[in-house]
Amino acid sequence: MAGAVPVWSVDPRTGDQREHVADEATAADVDAAVRAARDALPSLADRSARAAFLRTAAAHLEADGERIVATADAESALGAPRLTGELARTTGQLRAFADEVEDGDHLGVIIDHADPSRTPPQPDLRRYKLPLGVVAVYAASNFPLAFSVPGGDTASALAAGCPVVVKAHPDHPATSQLCAAALRSAAAEAGLAPDVVSVVHGFDAGVELVRHPLVSAAGFTGSVRGGRALFDAAAARPEPIPFHGELGSLNPVVLTPAAVAERAEQLGQGLGGSVTLGTGQFCVKPGLVLVPEGPDGDRTLDALAVTLRDTAPGHLLDARMRDAFLDGVRTRAALAKVQAPVEAGAGEEETGRTVRPGVLTLAARDLDEEHALLWEECFGPVTVAVRYGDEADIEAVLARVTGSLTATLHLGTEEAAREGGTAAALLARLTALAGRVVVNGWPTGVAVAPAQHHGGPYPATTSTSTSVGATAIERWLRPVAYQDTPEALLPPELRDGNPLGLPRRVDGTRET
């Protein structure tokens, strides 16, 4: 098409274009995709067909897994082992949501029969949840599978009964096309309209998507700048829509004196592994670590330094992110009284396209307004270690930390077993900052489990919802209550005989 803007797959290891994948979607293309998704909405109404579709989608992804992993590695440089695990997580996630659909608990059925003896008399009320409609999903750069076309936002929205239009990430367009083809094929095999899932490419397409009047909600994983722009656009619509965005996270860590006294070397090594996992491109990478002053804290940082120096340089997802990382560590290292025991920077290979990890250190007593940049996420393999002298120092540092996805606390054996005291106070303080609090572990690695919560106060996310785990489905549902409605007119989910066998609460009693 004349004037079309090509979308290229690019190898981050070399910077070379791999293949022309598609063209950027025009406003007319976005409109057509959204309208097709809206028309496909009724095909998701049957829960059995929906669950079968999700399981079939997982099977199709696995069947084409070798090609999908190879393509994702060529576009992301994340490595086949990591991506093979990510594919397993993605297919497991789809099957887990299929189980949720069949269980029906996500519908939240509540029935309160009429009670004329109350003052005032209580009418008959029956409540459950309905799908919102077409959902726009904005794929993430750092997870080309688990947070992209077949990822958690897509899986949970489909499980809720919402068709999805995905704005593919420009870092992995070929992977996006392969995954979309697998999902659309699975939909057809399950008897659903293939347009329950579609993909568009291009920055302008993403803006058009969030503004489209038939889009009912959006899910986003990415930068603060990009996410906030889309969030504002969603709020500025004539009819604002929910925007569930994951934007940025510092993920603070506190190491207590007792913890470093017991296992300084182990903590330094573990921290180094967490900071460099995926070349520091995990959204829950520890970006700020509070380390006590003194010999034990020194031993911890020494072990961290050894781990970082022993870690081979790695590739970032694209040249833009690499440039931002190099500029970010350079600017932070130039701040007054900031030291770099291990300098993060460019790798030394001939291609010059890798980065090496590092750590920046600063004493808590030296912090001032000049150091505000240290409280902003630096995407890549670097962390900031702040040395503290007492609990007042800890509070002064944490008071500057904004909302995060995770917060981590490492305790000594005895203080972890003791009720109350400093450990309990620190745990409460960190709970105020994050959606997931980790004790004596590391935050990288987000288990897909019913109890998981992957979210946090702003700017970690723009809502209080999770994007991982069973309750992620709640983002794409809205409750509705029927009052004094004749039995024959009620949805089957709300009828007295419970013809669908759903878990529900009737007159205050839980039924299964």
Automatic annotation (TrEMBL):
It comes from the Bacteria. Residues 1-20, 488-512 are annotated as: Disordered. Residues 9-449 form the Aldehyde dehydrogenase domain. Keywords: Oxidoreductase. It holds the Pfam family Aldedh. CDD domains: ALDH_KGSADH (cd07129). InterPro entries: Ald_DH/histidinol_DH, Ald_DH_C, Ald_DH_N, Aldehyde_DH_dom, Aldehyde_DH_Superfamily, ALDH_KGSADH. Transmembrane segments: none annotated. This is Aldehyde dehydrogenase (NADP(+)). It comes from Streptomyces tubbatahanensis. The lineage of its organism: Bacteria, Bacillati, Actinomycetota, Actinomycetes, Kitasatosporales.
